[in-house]
Amino acid sequence: MKAENPIEQLLPLLRDERSQRKAFADLVRLTGESLYRHIRRIVLVHEDADDVLQNTYIKAWRSLSGFKGDSALFTWLYRIATNEALTFLSRRRMESVPLPEDYEDIMLSRLEADPYYDGDAMQLKLQQAILTLPEKQRLVFNMRYFDQKSYAEIAAITGTSEGALKASYHIAAKKIESFIRSTDDI
Amino acid sequence: MTEQNISNASHRADRPNETRLEPGSERAGNDPFRVPDGYFDHLDERVMEAIDAAERSDRGDQADETRRPGRRTFSLAMGAVAALALVVIGIYVVLNLRADTQQQTREIVAASHPDDQYLDLVTDQLSSEEIEDALAQLEEE
């Protein structure tokens, strides 16, 4: 039931100018951690995830009047966060490296140097494997594997059909397994 | 994902019908992505501060927008003054050239007809057309 969801219950308060600010702060409290984890899986480094998270909420605040309620509020926020994270990555890719195709290597090095990353060798290898995936497969894999989102939820966020998402996840998982096996053999 | 999960996943790879890398095999307790202590405690306050700063910045931009027409008017006015100055200079140059031409014509006339009658023509400040008409009449006579 939509009305029982505390996030969806904020919607009328967000539409009223008198209660909007407090309701938005409540929305941040309710959704902050989930959105952060989602963004962090995409950009990997805490500092970048923090920037993208703030930008996500700023964009959501500015677009609040345009939210028609066609999707759930949380799905809408998730979509903004996904777009912000991908935009952030593509901007970084174009700006900060001599060859854009090397950016995944840089991301991995930055992850290793991130004081807020505690992964062991195998977890780092998994991240390395995920970074070999095309962006869309990476996104679907993260949302399905780590966030345990249903295909219906991922479809609502990415605007892709469930069938295409299932195929993407399947291919991504195969590639990751193959990458891990090949590096185990070395 | 623990080492065991990945290891299991890769060992199961030779059994194609079995699901591998199952969603949720990574448990929250094993999440290697940490955050600074208390990061989520005041997230709402930090976000609202960031929103306030962004709105102040927006208002600054808008104020800039409202100031810009004033700047544009000033630029247009300066452009008009410059154009007017060029036109005035142009007119001055044309008039000077015209005066020079008339003077030269009169001098030629005076040199070729050194009579008082013709010298009068020079001193009368007539236009070159009038001088030419007068010379033509004189020749006819």
Description:
The complex is a heterodimer of chains A (186) and B (141). Chain A is mostly helical. In chain A, 76% of the residues lie in helices and 0% in strands. Chain A contains ten helices and no strands. In chain A, helix 6 (103-113) runs antiparallel to helix 7 (121-131). Chain A is globular, with a radius of gyration of 18 Å. The termini of chain A are far apart. Chain B is mostly helical and 141 residues long. In chain B, 71% of the residues lie in helices and 0% in strands. Chain B is rod-shaped and about 120 Å long. The interface between A and B is large, with 42 and 32 residues.
Greatest interface: A-B, 42 and 32 residues
Anisotropy-based shape of chain B: rod-shaped
How big is the Rg of chain B?
47 Å
Q: Oligomeric state of the chains?
A: heterodimer
Question: How much helical structure, as a percent, in the residues of chain B?
Answer: over 70%
Tally of extended strands of chain B?
0
Helix percent of chain A reads over 70%
Estimated share of beta-strand residues of chain B: under 5%
Mean pLDDT of chain A: 89
Flag low-confidence runs of chain A: none
The amount of beta strand of chain A, in percent, is under 5%
Tally of contiguous helical segments of chain A: 10
Total DSSP helices of chain B: 4
The shape of chain A is globular
Could you state the order of secondary-structure elements of chain B as H and E? HHHH
Overall residue-averaged pLDDT value of chain B = 71
Major sheet description of chain B: none
Order of helices and strands of chain A: HHHHHHHHHH
Unreliable residue runs of chain B: 1-19
Tell me the distance between the termini of chain B: 121 Å
Largest sheet of chain A: none
